[in-house]
Here is the input.
Amino acid sequence: MLSILIVDDESPARDELKYLLSLENEVEIVGEADSGAAAIGLAAQLKANVIFMDVQMRGMNGLETAAILRTIVPETLLVFATAYDEYAVQAFTVGAVDYLLKPFERERVHMTIQRLKNYHGDEWRAAVGRVDAALNKSKIVVQKLPLEKNGKIIMVHYNDLNYVYTQKGIVTVVTIYGEFSYTSTLTELEERLAQTNLVRVHKSYIVNMDKVKEVVPWFKGTYWLKVEGDVEIPISKSRVREIKDILGLK
Here is the structure.
């Protein structure tokens, strides 16, 4: 059974695609979204295994949305929809397993569904791998982090993050807007934040270097960082030199 999320900012286009998909066997439409932000919020809740998404949407376009969705629902495959052939080519550069040109044609939709149904086990995982490889190659970089609170996914800009900590396997991100959950590991987040001002300072902490207010010397050559909110965070001894270099300390 294919469970499908439809993402398009135009209601007639969603309705047309929904009708054509309803003619297919073993297909369930689990939800609709009218923007990239709405799609991100629904994706984690609905757990669709396929997302049909318009490339040209107002605000966050389909390509930018895809980059974020790969971190939230990594097993989900993408099918892009577009009214222009050149965007179909671009869709494949970000890893879509197929694309549909508007206006939609029943036979073309049927072919796409059959292609998706033929993916099984290793073939599905290989297709997911191609999506990730293509996204990495396309260098789409979104400077926001998808965070969870009260069942919602909030996109918070890196500049608005104060620090991150992990406790008993749960990753919590402290921002200027409050605390949120992050549904992965601190190590994965460290990799995602590479080449930014958010740096791993301890096995349990990542800190936004722009939010450091004070460096507090401690015993035996160790230090603590005081960040926004007057929270003190330890620096691992093995990372002291790196952090001092970043902050311009001798």
Summary: The chain has two domains: 2-136, 144-247. Residues 144-247 form a domain with the OB fold (Dihydrolipoamide Acetyltransferase, E2P) fold (CATH 2.40.50.1020). The CA atoms of residues 8 and 34 lie 5 Å apart.
